[in-house]
Amino acid sequence: MTKKNLNTKVIRLDFEDNKAVRDLFGATDTHLKSIEKSLGVDIHVRGPHVRIEGEPSDVRVGEKVLNELYQMIRKGYPIMGSDIEQAIKILTRNSQASLESIFLDTIFIPARKKAITPRSPAQKTYIDAIRNNDLVFGIGPAGTGKTYLAVAVAVASFLKKEYRKLILCRPAVEAGERLGFLPGDIQEKIDPYLRPLYDALYDMLDPSQVQRMIENDEIEIAPLAFMRGRTLHHSFVILDEAQNCTPMQMKMCLTRLGVDSKMVVTGDVTQIDLPEGQVSGLLEAMRILDDIEGIAMHQFSEVDVVRHPLVRRLVKAYEKNNGEN
What is the model's pTM? Predict the structure, then answer.
């Protein structure tokens, strides 16, 4: 319960659309309980009528969260529990932010009849950067959506025939392992490294469709080394896990960009698996290319993590530990 004092503010909200109200409140009012816990306010409900009581700044955030999400629901947006937490985080950091302008900026995947939406201002800025630049670096911790959103924009663009081919690649170096230690032929050796890219595609396209597009050379998923010596025209290229590129590999990849092509480079500079003493090509590119016109450098942080809430706390704990060591 909130502590009542002279600064306590009470506001009342009235909602007319009963179906939208049910979605807004959540099953057994779980969304309202989440707002109470996050903001430290008291919320009392009687039918479609809501009373919020607490510190003025917290009440204002709660009021805006409910009002804006209510309007979004009426426009067909499906509210999830994670949206409540993201909305509170967004408005706590910037009370003037518009949830609608962020959450309703959709990437529509017609093959799945699926709309993928940004879940934070940082994700929206990232999507806008990809749309407006031919080379974009998405840098940040796990769970910020940097690879998933890049794949979503790529798939949507390809299905609209803006590009002739999707090329997704990764350096085949992870956690100190090398391909030679893995069993099987070359395809069996590289598949584990490329699996996250397949997973993202399968979330947006039917597996049979992905396989057919691979057979038709419309999608290529390959280790970074396979890019050497090529020029990639009319292609949407994604280089994932770029922190594990050497400087030479990074330069090789970036200079593959051809006519009417776009490239997104993603990576997490806190998870470099290169041998000790080897400079990361991503870190070098961030330093060298930061002021080059036409290149967008987008940085995510732990506050932008949109996976399970625990992931954000894990990232923050590791960052704190690295800062102390």
Answer: 0.73
